[in-house]
Write a structure and sequence with these properties.
Keywords: Membrane, Transmembrane, Transmembrane helix. The protein is mostly helical. The protein has one domain. The chain is built from two helices and no strands. α1 runs antiparallel to α2.
Length: 60
């Protein structure tokens, strides 16, 4: 189980960084972002952040 956590954690962090990067790019483009798209980015970031936090706390 421990090797699996060491593989999953960097992947989750990478997905979180990529998700937040695209969210920032969409907002910086100057176009009006639909609320549904904004909520989707927010919920994905929330779930990825909670997953990373869960894996970190499980390690302690």
């Amino acid at each position: 189980m421990k090797p699996l956590i060491t593989i999953i954690k960097p992947i989750l962090i990478l997905f979180l960084v990529v998700n937040l990067f695209f969210w920032m790019v969409y907002h910086a483009s100057g176009h009006k972002i639909p609320v549904q798209t904004d909520l989707t980015f927010g919920f994905i970031s929330l779930f990825l952040g909670l997953g990373i936090l869960f894996l970190y706390l499980k390690k302690l």
